[in-house]
Amino acid sequence: MKMLTWAGAAALALAVGGTAQAENIKIGVVAPFTGANADLGQQIDKAFDLYVKLHAKDIAPHTVQIVKRDEGPPTGANAKTVATELITNDKVQILAGFAFSPSAIALAPVVTQAKVPMVIANAGTAWITNLSPYIVRLSFSMWHHGYPMGAYAYDKIGCKTAALAYTDFPPGKDSTEAFKTGFEKAGGKVTESIPLGSPVQVPDFTPFFQRIKDSKPDCMYVFIPSGAHATGVTKAYGELGMRKAGIKLIGPMDLIPDNKLQDMGDAAIGTIVMGNYAVDLDNAENKAFNEAWHKEYGKDSYPDFMAAASWDTMHAIFDAIKKVNGNVSDGAKFVDAMKGWTGKGPRGTVMIDANTRDIVQDEHAMEVIRKPDGKLGVKVLGTIKAVKDECKELKIGRCGS
Amino acid sequence: MPQFAIIAVSILFDGLAYAMFLFITSVGLSVTMGLMGFVNLAHGAFAMAGGYIVVSLTRDLGIGFAPSLAIAAVSVGAVSVVFERGLYRRLYKATDLEQVLLTIGLAFMAIATATYLYGPIPKSVPLPPWLQGDISLGFRAFPTYRAFLIVLGLVLISVLWYGFEKTNIGAKIRAAVDNRRMAESVGINVDLLFTLTFALGSGLAALGGGLAIQLFGLSPSFAVLYLVLFLIVVAVGGLGSLKGTLLAALVIGIIDTGGKYLYAEAGGFFIYAITVIVLLIKPAGFYGRE
Asked: A22-140+282-357 sits in which CATH class?
């Protein structure tokens, strides 16, 4: 009898020990791999792969397995389908990626029901994190860039009046609302607010910008998704000679994605953006990140803010895996492990706000310049430390619920 | 000059430039559909191919922008003959659905090929100095590139008009569009005619693709994204009509530009409104046969 008890205890100990041993954690990655915004997917994908490649040993003895699916166009429908499949068929324990807000918004009820943590590496509509307790965001809210830009534009750039132009989908409205709130609070006056059509197709920006040029505001604040639209905006702005006419081009950093900056030419010089990342940002982690990136993907491939946030996303996920010792079956516990996380990455020191599950990070006002080596780059004009999502702080609209 | 006149001139100028791009790129599609009743959804892919050839020639080989445009148009026109003879020809008598499936499949393959070769990041081209900057007319400055578009468009229209209306081959094409069987029975080789016009249309699409880079940027999805615009121009103008395509391009280009300028809030709505109104009144388009 005594023997039997001993044997039972040993078996139990083995069983308990077993669950704490090497776990293979499945992470479902949803990013746009096809269509007009496929390059956004590449940024997320490359950064994830690079982090996993260089840091897989950090979570030993546990391992991760990445399952990739196409997010499709910025409408949310495709993302919802593939993410639901990832949860039900592939049994992933964590979802990561999401370039577009409509995807995250469509998927929020699904992850709440499935109790699967959803870690966002880009989608920036402010109120997304309010939609589910399983959503954690490492990228930014539109308010991170837009709101501080309002006061900065008025005080430092000399914009007394500004015209707003935005791509007509949730983050576009969000970004202009954020800018407007900050700008009007500082004393600025918004002359008009123009929707630039859907995010799917790049329109001919000329008639919109010609209208703004004729109304002569000091500044033009533009939000567009950082894909093919960005190049179009700079081209139309340059072609119409708006800088010569004294209208400054400002916006969130989506206006000058690092991987497209070299193609934009002289028209981009002088553009001032508010953002959390640029390849020229001066810190040790960013230098190492860029070196690793060029080594892996070639010297002409540049990471952008999306890649930087994706790097931090994987970093936070890995740290949380360590914290729960590979036991990711309880989604709520995993999210708890991510709350309050602080890490150093390409963007400097970033933190996940324990209350809102949203990122806290430094914001930089950056001006596009021609660097001594002939390439385009940015110069940091000023830095605002530890910026929270002001939309949730001020409880504006859906951010308050 | 009073303010409203300046605005009107400005809208006309931008709209005209836009219309020229629409015309150059769409006219081939219209003729293909009119002549053979063939639905070629890969038309945008030919335009995209032209764009990427211009990118490669100007950026990698250092050839000038204007010669690159010409080379792109000629080479895409030539290659399109291979497609026409090898693939399209087999489906002339097939149903619309089969034609659509073949050509949209080609478009998707073109997108994948372009993504593989050039990556998904939008490309731009270096413009020569004579196309940069703007031309000032005192009351207003106009971008040089758009002025160039307008001039090029007008030249092409004149050449096409002359070719269609005044030459023997143009008369044959018009005859074949009007009544194919009659044309064949008087000894016109409609097959050969079609191959020629197909090559011409594809070459013009490639030229349009090269010109579009400066307007929209060029990424692999160009092949499908702007196809809607070209189809709208063709539908509004009427199949197979040069005049119709030109009129449709002008109406859509100018009203779309004017709408965006004057009623920016409603932005992209105008182009669809015009399409619906025109097709309600004239279901076959401006110059289509009902």
From this structure: alpha beta
